[in-house]
Write a structure and sequence with these properties.
Elements lengths: L2 H22 L8 H17 L23 E3 L9 E2 L5 H13 L10 E8 L2 E8 L2 E7 L5 E3 L2 H5 L16 E9 L2 H13 L8 H9 L4 H5 L4 E11 L8 H10 L9 E4 H15 L7 E8 L2 H7 L1 E2 L2 E2 L2 E5 L4 E13 L4 E13 L2 E7 L3 H7 L6 E5 L7 E5 L14 H4 L10 E2 L7 E3 L6 H12 L11 H9 L6 H4 L4 H5 L6 H13 L2 E2 L1 H7 L7 H11 L2 H6 L2 H5 L6 H12 L1 H12 L3 E4 L14 E5 L7 H10 L3 E3 L8 E4 L5 H9 L2 E3 L1 H8 L9 E2 L2
Bound molecules: ligand D41.
């Protein structure tokens, strides 16, 4: 055999595996994909031309071979035990485990705490990897613990699993046990790709991992993005200086480039276990993969041996579970909820089920496309998921459990030709995912949401106008549009449920105070579709006055920073609605006002390049309003006074900043002084209050 080819093949394998490890385990790519592909193809060509060069641990083996007729059985050299589950999901579960371990070891209360290792419980499929002389020769499922299935071909396609160990002196035999799983982002990406190709999707990452490993066509398995983390050992022969603890074992495996999860600790006694349990529980939803709990293990192998096992479960380990994030339940009905923008969101009413720590009775179905994709029907058995504070959702239908008297497909437009809240027509616009009610502010559902938005802290900031009050005001017909809020008397407010005289007075004062606002807040408060806070601010800055915005065409609007065709269209449509113009007029008539300017397209701003500091309480302007006015005029607001400060605006109870300004000789203004500053002196009013 020409030794040049042999050396080249070996060099290519080394290089490819080095990049592979960097990419799949360290998540830090070292070369561009195209360059990796080139190396890979070179090696493939070499091996094809010189079949005698091929080795069982060549990276070319990762692409998957011929389909299998079935899996061969593998008898495990050392049985794969199972792990005892602590039924108590509270912190006391860790205490119970520690107490049992201490008792079995015959420790007295006065003896020192036991050393433990704590790690995550990955939600996947347990696998045994057998390395002989450092080369991966076999991978098997756990099966019944005694005998599993030979899934070597499929496991070779998992790039994170090394085909040979990174060590100069590998043990004669080293069996690594761990869990094959799918990361959530890989799962989502895979499903999106499948959906696009009109191919079947995976129900969840766990099924994805288990299904891929048991896939008979290794080429298909190779397309599934799987990951692996080691959690223990099987048979071991000839490991010089073998570690004496579980944590040192995982460290040693990590050095050999076997993937080991970084989220693990060692600690003493139950307190360390509880701390780990609580820490991970708080961060569970931020992890890139699903876990169903944590695992505690007695760290020292000599103590593990002393403890032994009962009926295939070691006494030295326990799984401490978290509440499941997915459960099965049935769909009792499908209804819709009308949102602020009129979108009809389909919601599944469910038989109550405990999932993610709470009892769930509703789950979102997102929109018609999602209903169609998952084919959710009334009466179906479904999997619901609730992770963290995310709204519960229906993940998948268990089609094999669909009732024989098959219910029909659910179609929003057919079931709700008119809005269930107001009776207006429901439409689905070209290119939109949502079906929408056309009722606008006429629709109470949209009215309530629009009012809450209008009164919100970042909009008109009417403190105390929350959802309970908004419900009453709309239901009693006291408020139809935001403008009606300004006509509410203190007596009317006091007559509402849960409103005492004092809170009515406070709310009345808050409504009054909200009248002095800024153009940006006002625009945001209107609740124009696709106009968020930042866009509202850009529009205010650009146009300077509401009338200019009202007169703007789509072309005019496109000149504003970050405004694209969709936003421009939403704005024009909003102001084309006579109803909305009427509301704006009534708001201005009620005394809602803001400082206007000529806008930035004509002026650099009267305070351009100036730095101001605000201190104390101003007589009429809130701090935010003053800041927004200064910024609208091109000025900057700083937090502390320095030589670079141009003006300090001082109100009542101004403290050290005022003293510092006096000391440095910085010009000091009161509110009237600030307003005068914003007023140009050429008599041609550039800024005015719009009463
Ligand atoms: O993450 C896991 N799913 C996990 C599973 C883990 N972190 N540790 C485990 N440890 C064991 C023993 C204690 C028996 C070595 C396990 C499992 N077993 C296990 N997984 C499936 C069956 C057994």
């Amino acid at each position: 055999m020409p030794s040049g080819f042999l050396a080249r093949a070996a060099a290519l394998r080394r290089e490819i595996e080095r990049h592979n490890y960097a990419y799949y385990v360290l998540d830090a790519p070292t070369i561009p994909d195209a360059e990796y592909d080139r190396l890979f193809r070179e090696l493939q060509a070499l091996e094809a031309e010189h079949p005698e060069l091929a080795t069982p641990d060549s990276p070319t083996r990762r692409v998957g071979g011929k389909p299998l007729g079935g899996f061969a059985s593998v008898r495990h050299a050392v049985p794969m035990l199972s792990i005892r589950t602590e039924t108590d999901t509270e912190a006391s579960g860790a205490q119970a485990f520690d107490a049992r371990v201490r008792k079995e070891l015959g420790l007295a209360d006065s003896d020192p705490p036991v050393d433990y290792a704590a790690e995550l419980k990955f939600d996947g499929l347990a696998i045994n990897l057998r390395y002989e002389q450092g080369v991966l020769v076999q991978a098997a499922t756990r099966g019944d613990g005694e005998t599993g299935e030979d899934v070597t071909q499929n496991v070779r396609t998992i790039h994170a699993i090394p085909l040979h160990l990174k060590t100069g002196s590998p043990p004669a035999v080293l069996e690594v046990r761990g869990e094959v799983f799918m990361r959530r982002d890989d799962f989502e990406r895979y499903n999106a790709k499948q959906r696009e190709a009109g191919k079947p999707t995976l129900v969840n990452p766990r099924n994805g991992a288990a299904g891929s490993i048991r896939q008979l066509d290794p080429k298909l398995a190779a397309q599934r993005p799987l990951s692996f983390f080691a959690y223990g050992l099987g048979e071991v022969q000839g490991w010089k200086q073998a570690p004496l603890t579980h944590s040192a074992t995982l460290d040693a495996l990590e050095k050999m480039e076997i993937p080991v999860c970084g989220e693990r600790v060692t600690g003493q006694g139950a307190a360390a276990l509880i701390a780990f349990h609580d820490d991970i529980a708080a961060r569970r939803d931020q992890l890139p993969f699903d876990i169903d709990g944590v695992v505690y293990k007695v760290n020292r192998f000599d103590l593990q041996r002393e403890l032994g096992f009962v009926t295939r479960e070691p006494r030295w380990a326990v799984a401490h579970k978290y509440p499941a994030q997915e459960q099965m339940t049935t769909v009792l009905g499908i209804e819709v909820q009308v949102g602020r923008t009129g979108a009809l969101t389909p919601v599944a009413r469910l038989a109550p089920v405990f999932v993610g720590g709470v009892t769930v009775t509703n789950a979102t179905l997102h929109n018609q496309d999602e209903i169609d994709r998952k084919d959710v029907r009334v009466g179906d058995t479904v999997i619901v998921r609730r992770a963290g504070d995310v709204i519960p959702e229906v993940v998948a239908v268990m089609l094999d459990r669909r009732p024989t008297s098959e219910p029909s497909r659910f179609n929003i437009l057919q079931r709700y030709p008119v809005c269930p809240e107001c009776g207006s027509h429901v439409v689905r616009l070209e290119g939109e995912a949502a079906a929408r009610c056309t009722g606008g502010l006429y629709c109470p559902a949209q009215r309530k949401q629009a009012l809450l938005h209008f009164a919100g802290r970042r909009a008109m900031d009417i403190e105390g106008l929350g959802d309970k009050l908004v419900d009453q005001l709309v239901d009693l017909g006291l408020v139809h549009t935001p403008a009606d809020v300004y006509g509410l008397s203190q007596e009317t407010l006091a007559s509402l449920e849960r409103m005492a005289e004092k809170s009515a007075a406070n709310l009345r004062a808050a409504i009054e105070a909200s009248k002095a606002t800024t153009l940006a807040r006002f625009i945001f408060a209107l609740g124009i579709r696709n106009v968020g806070e930042a866009t509202a601010r850009d529009l205010a800055l650009y146009f300077g006055s509401l009338d200019k915005l009202l007169a703007a065409t789509e072309t005019d609007l496109l000149a504003v920073r970050d405004v694209g065709p969709i936003v421009a269209q939403s704005i024009v449509q909003f102001f084309a609605e006579p109803h909305n113009i009427e509301v704006v007029k009534r708001l201005r008539d009620a005394g809602v006002r803001w400082l206007e300017s000529t806008g930035v397209q004509q002026s650099a701003g009267i305070l351009a390049g100036k730095t101001l500091v605000l201190t104390g309480t101003l007589p009429t302007l809130t701090r935010d309003a003053a800041k927004e006015m200064i910024e609208a005029a091109g000025g900057k607001v700083a937090g502390s006074v320095s030589k670079k400060t141009d003006y300090v605006v001082a109100g009542e109870e101004a403290g050290s900043k005022l003293a510092k300004a006096q000391e440095l000789g910085v010009t000091i203004l009161d509110e009237a002084g600030l307003l005068a500053l914003l007023e140009p002196d050429d008599g041609n009013a550039q800024h005015r209050f719009d009463f």
